[in-house]
Specification:
Largest sheet: 7 strands, antiparallel
Number of helices: 12
Shape: globular
Strand order of the largest sheet: 1-3-2-14-13-12-11
Radius of gyration: 20 Å
Number of strands: 14
Oligomer: single chain
Distance between the termini: 14 Å
Order of helices and strands: HEHEEEHHHHHHHEEEEEEHHEEEEH
């Protein structure tokens, strides 16, 4: 199962009308400076969004708003407590575990992957040391997941959604592929930044090697239980599991246009389901010091710099293309920043799984927070990114015209 290619395979499907259930419903509408009408309008599903439904949770100046929109396929309302797949929002959790292990003296962020996992990276192609920190801040130069593999057709991706791959299997299929050339470095470690999910597969393997526990045990013990994230579930190794009820429906489209509910999936060891409430607990606990000591927490808000003291250049893609630092690194260890017109920033992470797009962002003082999830129905138009941008504008529009970044697998 090639997770990275499957994410973009939903066939185009046009909707001529908006079903009655698409009208956004507010679960809570507190008084204050949150524009409730604008928020409701922002998450109302539009024909070109490629979305089946939306759930959102916004905090600002002590006020809270929760709302839902959809389900356009069944016409049924979506619960504000709906569960969904969080994709790469699990990456900050992986980073937290390694930062905690660093504080415990069990891992050195400046030590090399080759030291901790000898033989994992073929020496003939990866001779230069790659540090643990470089895995986490996307400066490793490692190849992408399954780099060089052909795109997976939509129908095949739907049928293979039940597959589960371990960290070892992703690493082996990426670095030692069968039937195609093996990839090498994309750039010298520490010289550029490029968003890289594969580095986090290696980081997950490192967590399991250091702790001698499955990743699911470590994330549950170190993050989910301490923060009382009772609605968040880690993947079950080797199994295909459903999103718990109530859930946000997510669909993929077959080549003939038929929508398939992809509620049940396999995934990876770091695959998780959660709710907007639980993800708000996570980013709150991350920023208020409950998970990390000050020295480790500082890594969350520091983008990598070169020997000249300036942020590294961003290598490829559409990330890091907003604000005065456009074209330079915008990812820290585990997070990314989104500049606002007033000079302040939000920090957080987006995620993608087949059928799902999501994001969680907050200001460092936690005064402004937004969590959203979108169940997909089509790749037509701007999709989830358009919904996220409307939500950001409605939530924090008095700061100018902010926009949340694109989704990450």
């Amino acid at each position: 199962m090639r997770r990275s290619s499957a994410l973009s395979l939903t066939a185009a499907l046009a909707f001529g009308v908006i079903a009655p259930a698409q009208a956004a419903t507010a679960a809570s509408t507190p008084a204050g400076n949150l524009d409730r009408a604008a928020l409701r309008e922002a998450i109302t599903v539009r024909p070109d969004d490629g979305a089946a439904g939306v759930v959102a949770d916004v905090h600002k100046n002590g006020q809270r708003w929760r709302g839902t929109s959809g389900d356009i396929s069944t016409g049924k309302p979506i619960s504000p407590d709906a569960h969904f797949r969080i994709g790469s929002i699990s990456k900050p959790m992986e980073a937290v575990i390694l930062l905690q292990l660093s504080a415990e003296g069990r891992v050195d962020l400046d030590q090399s992957v080759q030291h901790y996992l000898p033989g994992l990276l073929p020496e003939t192609r990866f001779a230069e040391p790659i540090s643990v920190r470089q895995l986490l801040n996307h400066t490793s130069g490692l190849p992408q997941d399954f780099e060089g593999s052909p795109a997976t057709p939509a129908d095949e991706a739907i049928e293979r959604r039940h597959e589960y791959l371990s960290f070892d299997e992703v690493i082996e299929q990426t670095l030692r592929p069968v039937g195609r050339p093996a990839p090498g470095p994309r750039f010298r470690p520490g010289t550029r930044q490029e968003y890289n999910s594969f580095g986090y597969r290696v980081a997950g393997k490192l967590i399991e090697e250091i702790t001698k526990h499955p990743y699911q045990y470590e994330v549950t013990t170190r993050i989910l239980k301490p923060l009382k994230m009772r609605e968040t579930r880690a993947a079950v190794p080797g199994r295909s599991t459903p999103v718990p009820a109530p859930y946000l429906p997510g669909y993929m489209a077959r080549s003939n246009g038929e929508l398939v509910d992809v509620n049940v999936q396999g995934g990876l060891p770091a695959s998780m389901t959660s709710t907007t409430g639980d993800l708000d607990r996570f980013i709150s606990g991350l920023f208020d010091g409950r998970l990390l000591r000050p020295a480790q927490a500082a890594e969350l808000f520091a983008v990598p710099k070169g020997t000249d003291g300036k942020p590294l250049p961003y290598a490829n893609g559409s990330n890091c293309n907003t604000g005065p630092a456009k074209g330079t690194a915008c990812f820290s260890v585990g997070l990314m920043y989104v500049p606002l017109p007033d000079g302040s920033v939000l920090w957080g992470k987006t995620g993608s799984d087949p059928g799902y797009r999501s994001g969680v962002f907050a200001s460092p003082d936690l005064n402004r927070r937004a969590v959203y999830a979108i169940g997909t129905s089509s790749s037509l138009g701007n999709g989830a990114e358009a919904v996220a941008q409307r939500l950001a504008l409605a939530a924090f529009g008095n700061q100018g015209s902010p926009s949340l970044p694109g989704q990450h697998p």
